[in-house]
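In response to reviewer comment 3 from the previous cycle, which asked for concrete evidence that the modeling workflow produces usable outputs, we include below a single protein chain processed end to end. The sequence was submitted unchanged, and the resulting structure tokens are shown without manual editing.
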Amino acid sequence: MMTWLPMPYFKMSEHKYIKRIVLLLLAFLFVNCNNQVNKGAAVSNGQNIANNLKTKGKRLFAEAKYDSLITEAKKALILVTAIKDKASMAYANDVLGIAFSSKRQLDSAVYYLKKGEKLAIEIKHNGYMVAIQTRIAELYYDSGKPDSVTVYKDKMTSEADTIKNIPLKMQLTQKLADIYGTTNQPEKALKLYFPLLEYYRGKKDSLYTGIQLCNIAGMYAQVSDFNKAIDYSLKGIAYLNDRQYTKTISYNDLGSFYIDVKKYDEAINAFKKCIALAKSFNNISYMEDTYVSIASPLIELKQFKQGAAYLDKAQEYYAGNKYETGFMYVLIMRGKMARNQGNYQKAIVYFEKSLEIAKRTAHFDSELYVSGLLADVFGKAGLYQRAYQYEVKYNIVRDSLEKTNTKKNITDLEIKYQSNEKEQKIALLNQASKLKDIELTDEKRKWWFLLAFVGFLLVIAFLLYRSYEQKRISHKLLEEKNEALNLLNGKLNEANSSKTKLFSILSHDLRAPVNSLFQFLNIQKNHAGKLTEIQRQKHNERIINSAENLMESMEDLLIWSKSQMDSFSLKLNRITALELISLTSTMYQDFAEERKLIVEINCAPDINLTTDVNFLKIVLRNILSNAIKFTPAGGHIKISAEHHEEWVYFSIADNGPGLSHEQIENIFEWNSIRSDSSGLGLKLAKEFIDRLKGSIAVESELNEGTTFIVLVPAQPNGQIVITQN
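The workflow returned the following structure tokens.
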């Protein structure tokens, strides 16, 4: 906090000192505001990229073009990473995770989703964080990693307790309930689904009301109440329409519930509706999953040929995509088909292979189910000892699952006990706090005496400080004078630097037009009688062109001189890229013809930009001058322009001797100028292009020519962030 002294203590030096502080603060605020504007523009640009990806992504996902979706997402990720837009980076990583999971490449999906999660946490974007964490948990469950599922479930539980945004809290509760459901904890899932159902009914949200009803149906199926499951499933489907993908999943679940109550015809009808909807969404992977599901009622109805046809399609798809879990379900169905056909040995082979996959991928529910199937088929085959062994394994796996539930109950009791223990500790702390209050009352008296002593010391310190402050003010006056001298020295150095640049420009940019004019005048003086009328007219035109070029170079010099003034501002005009290239190339047409150079112009006539024409013309002219200077006789120079989003690209390429890597690194530095080089023009080009908020780059290899690329904004907003690699 600043303490203002009484008026008698102020001197002129103090007024100046405070004024300088205020000016510095204003300068700091101006720079900071400008940075915030640039940052805001970069974020806006990142949002545009993310929106474009969202539009393309929906279409590519609907068309099941996952490879194209991955390509588009990676392109977007590179662009938003360049401008450091972390929100758009998180979104692009999320899209990549979805695309890879759709291709069943779970490791790649988890990799990109974890990157997205990290970015979402950094920027505290709860929406992205919830969606990505849910996807990661589901992928871990599909890949047989229950411990990792538990970690993400605990994360989401903690987040649900802290988030105050009600819609986002409901979204997180939805995802948490889904995880409880997929990890066989139906009671906990139902405790979340019913409040969600009431919430969305109150909001009159048909889609999410239907989703909650279908989710509740799934939980009743887990506790084997299949009639209730069918009832809730039918109610949920009534809320959904055919344009909503959730209806596809709901029909698949309904078919499974009908199988459990042995209504096989109804099950087949539900699965067929599911397949038709999946086809309309072009979701091949879900359609193949439903092929496995529809095989079950067909097998029970002994329609083995139709069931086998569906399984063949699914197996071919899973093998091509290396989806082991899907292949396990195909093996289970083939085993059930062989069992129902009385081919018990073949059924045993299928069941044992599927059991091996269930163990390897940690699908405990599938392991339990297949163990029961093996016990049944060994018994039917008369192999009672093996049947007994699998019956024992079935009970072991079942007991293991029950023990897991018991451990969870014990953990809940431990948490409750710890909570009671904490309450007792809080009560003891309250008693201790009362005793402390009594002790503090006695301590206050001691503090009053101590404060009086401290006050006495402060008076002495103030007197000493006042003496020190007077000396400091005198010292500050000397420092201010030194600063003023340093400022003058800095301005002198700047003036010397500008003078050096001026002399360099005079020798570089004016030498060519003066020499050209001198040569033409010399020819006219010494050889006028030898020229024909046509040659004389052409010669006079060249003299006029050289004089005009000299005049234009003088104007460019004046523009550069004005640009060094603090009050200088850009003069913006609208011009086509073709007109700008034509103006530049015309100046050097005679030189190019004299050296028999081919100058090719490749530019569409409708490329427009708003810029300082004089600045940009000087930039292009210097680059073209160097290209003509260093391109051998009979060589080729290509000038082109392209428009891309907010930018216009100019390119000038020659087939001259090229540049070394060392020359390229120093080509834009003022301290590398030599009298015999092309460096000065490029230094000016770099300085002017920076004023235009653009960039300039060079690509060259020795003996292979040189290409200069100039990048300028099509519109002069001055707020676009450029990242160069």
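The beta strands are 573-576, 598-603, 608-611, 636-644, 647-654, 695-700, 706-713. We consider this sufficient to address the reviewer's concern, and the full set will be provided in the supplementary archive.
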